[in-house]
Write a structure and sequence with these properties.
The complex is a heterodimer of chains A (207) and B (392). Chain A has 207 residues and is of the alpha+beta class. Chain A is built from 7 helices and 8 strands; from the N terminus they run E-E-E-H-H-E-H-H-H-E-H-E-E-E-H. In chain A, helix 1 (34-45) runs parallel beside helix 2 and helix 2 (57-70) packs parallel to helix 5. Chain B has 392 residues and is α/β, with parallel strands linked by helices. In chain B, 30% of the residues lie in helices and 21% in strands. Chain B is built from 10 helices and 15 strands. Chain B has helices at 17-25, 51-62, 73-87, 127-137, 153-166, 183-191, 253-266, 284-296, 308-311, 318-332; strands spanning 2-10, 32-34, 44-47, 98-103, 145-147, 172-179, 212-213, 215-222, 229-240, 275-277, 304-305, 334-335, 357-358, 363-370, 374-384. In chain B, helix 4 (127-137) links the parallel strand 4 and strand 5 (145-147). Classes of the chains: A alpha+beta (207), B alpha/beta (392). Chains A and B meet through helix 3, helix 5, strand 5 and helix 6 of A and helix 4, strand 5, helix 5, helix 6 and strand 9 of B.
Chain lengths: 207, 392
């Protein structure tokens, strides 16, 4: 059995554009923030999935990236608990945290909402991607200062070598008050680009 | 092999594992109803750490360390917890071969509160920043790894540490974590109507929601044992329900998968597990879900407890707090009763502990579940060691 892992597909969302395997797949005419961009990118795929509209912005970003990534491949050959999702970012859910904080800071207008609060955890986007695709494998979300392939590569390799999982969605989904960026990639033992720190770094930086 | 060398718990019931365990053994409950508009406009039950003694202990500790920066409440809790655990091992925290993992859901989230504006730099709320403070305080040369995966963070952090050691990436991993009670978190859970009226009642017929708590806890894991009898990590897994982001699966799907995978990896069957430390938040859905996941794996007869009735739900710290207590239960061969449990209240006939009980504990399981459909489990076991200090 092949004990090496390879990057089969990758998707980058950056500057109002979506690239899959290096190829531009969607470009938004609007450039007024993540909310509008995510909606336009969603409409372009037209998946008819109403849960999308309930998500907070960063979950929409992660969801959109996963839709474009998985649009070009089939995960059906893997059992649902053989597919794992291991993600990272630097700002956790800070934009949504601030939204929740704004509903509770002033005693005169104290009105916290469960539909905002539930999104104040970074792994909720893993949950959203899992629900959409019926994925039931391992989950982990790491918070790092800046994009750092090492933690994700190590985690995925370790899960694979301990036979916990056979296919992986790894990457980075970050959202700040002024910017957003997603980089998701799909990893299996099918021969393609070797799954290591240098390759992941190159894919992330060379667009 | 991955050995558990030392641990610590900082909670409302004490600042060491043994202080906490003594309180738990005597049935002391750390949850009180407080009325403090800083946190919530109405009274609510919660397990809080005394801030005056936290400051006092932290100031005492800093005399022995060269770190001079200011620290938040959360960082003080983590630092105290790690420092106490380190006292009981020979591992070198300054070595490149020692990693630190911090497990937290919301970190320094209290700094978002307008009342705290200006106390620290505004981006101190970012979780990796708190992580950096911990490595700097202990002069650890590696970047602290921060894991934030809702209420399964602590168990996933231990599973991650075990993989680091087994793959040879590090020799030792200090797995620590904390979450604090804040207006942010209290009002969020209140908006979900998921907080209990009084101290929570896991697995009970009249359970009415969870109680929040704050805590820090640490477990130190290594590829070498430091004594003749050791508790070792056997296996662990996580799994997603793929069902709902805020409600557990009605079939216990993800939790059942995590338990099953952990049992297969450990090479054991249901009859090998002596005791289960459940997640047991005391929300109607969580405890029911766990009863189904446990029964799906034929573990319904195994004596089980939840510690949430003593210390509340400490979120990102919970998996670490409860694993540290489980380690102490195994060392003493005592299983703690489930505080708040009176009348069986889940659909499956679980063996929920009503009294503290003595039992030879060789192999035990810890479970966790959380928002985002996340679930995790880990299995630990006693091991006789012929040559302490040898890597095996």
């Amino acid at each position: 059995m092949n004990r090496e892992l390879y990057v089969n597909n990758y998707c980058i969302v950056r500057d109002h554009r979506i690239y899959v395997n290096g190829k531009l797949c969607f470009e938004s005419p609007v450039s007024n923030g993540l909310r509008e961009f995510a909606k336009a990118a969603y409409r372009n795929l037209a998946p008819n999935y109403n849960k999308f509209f309930k998500m907070d912005e960063i979950s929409k970003l992660g969801f959109i990236a996963s839709e474009y990534l998985l649009n070009y491949i089939s995960i059906d050959e893997y059992k649902n608990d053989e597919i794992s999702i291991i993600l990272s970012n630097s700002h956790s859910t800070l934009v949504t945290d601030t939204n929740h904080q704004n509903t509770i800071s002033d005693p005169e207008s104290f009105f916290p909402s469960p539909s905002v609060f539930v999104y104040t955890l970074p792994n909720i986007m893993i949950g959203e991607i899992s629900i959409r695709n019926g994925i039931k494998g391992e989950n982990a979300f790491f918070i790092v200062e800046k994009f750092n392939p090492e933690i994700i590569v190590n985690h995925i390799n370790n899960l694979f070598l301990t036979n916990k999982s056979r296919a992986f969605i790894g990457g980075w989904v970050n959202h700040t008050e002024t910017d957003y960026e997603a980089f998701l990639y799909f990893v299996t033992d099918k021969k393609a680009l070797p799954h290591n720190r240098q390759v992941i770094n190159n894919l992330y930086n060379n667009l | 092999m991955v050995h558990f060398l030392a641990d610590n718990i900082i909670s409302s019931l004490g600042i060491t594992t043994s202080e906490n365990f003594s309180s738990l053994l005597s049935g002391e409950v750390g949850i009180r109803t407080i009325y403090d508009k800083k946190y919530y406009p109405e009274p609510f039950p919660v397990s809080m750490i005394d801030e005056v003694s936290l400051e006092h202990e932290y100031n005492k500790l800093t005399l022995n360390y060269s770190y001079e920066g200011s620290t938040t409440k959360l960082e003080k809790m983590i630092i105290l917890s790690v420092a106490d655990a380190l006292k009981n091992t020979k591992i070198d925290i300054r070595s490149r071969r020692t990693a630190i993992i911090v497990s937290t859901t919301k970190g320094n989230i209290d700094l978002l509160d307008p009342a705290k504006k200006g106390c620290f730099e505004s981006d101190r709320v970012l979780l990796w920043k708190a992580g950096n403070i911990i490595s700097r305080f202990f002069a650890n040369p590696n970047k602290t790894i921060v894991l934030s995966n809702a209420c399964v963070s602590g168990v996933v952090a231990i599973n991650t540490a075990a993989m680091y050691i087994n793959s040879g990436l590090y020799d030792n991993v200090v797995v620590t974590g904390a979450d604090i009670v804040s207006r942010f978190v209290v009002s969020g859970f209140m908006s979900f109507l998921s907080l209990s009226q009084g101290a929570c009642k896991p697995f009970d017929m009249n359970r009415d929601g969870l109680s929040l708590g704050e805590a820090a806890a640490t477990v130190i894991m290594s590829n070498k044992s430091e004594s003749n009898s050791s508790i070792v990590y056997l296996s662990g897994a996580s799994a997603n329900d793929a069902n709902h982001i805020s409600g557990p699966s009605r079939t216990g799907e993800g939790s059942a998968i995590a338990i099953k995978k952990a049992m297969i990896e450990a090479g054991i069957t249901a009859k090998d597990i002596d005791h289960i430390s459940a997640h047991g938040t005391a929300t109607p859905y969580n405890d029911e879900m766990e009863s189904i996941a446990i029964t799906r794996n034929n573990l319904q007869d195994v004596p089980l407890n939840s510690l949430k009735g003593y210390l509340g739900h400490t979120l990102g710290a919970a998996g670490l707090v409860e694993t540290a207590v489980l380690l102490e239960e195994m060392r003493r061969n005592i299983m703690l009763k489930t505080a708040g449990f009176e009348e069986h209240g889940v659909s499956k006939p679980l063996n929920v502990l009503r009294q503290n009980e003595s039992k030879e504990l060789n192999c035990c399981m810890k479970m966790a579940s959380g928002f985002g459909g996340s679930n995790a489990a880990l299995i630990i076991s006693k091991q006789e060691i012929n040559e302490p200090g040898a890597i095996r």
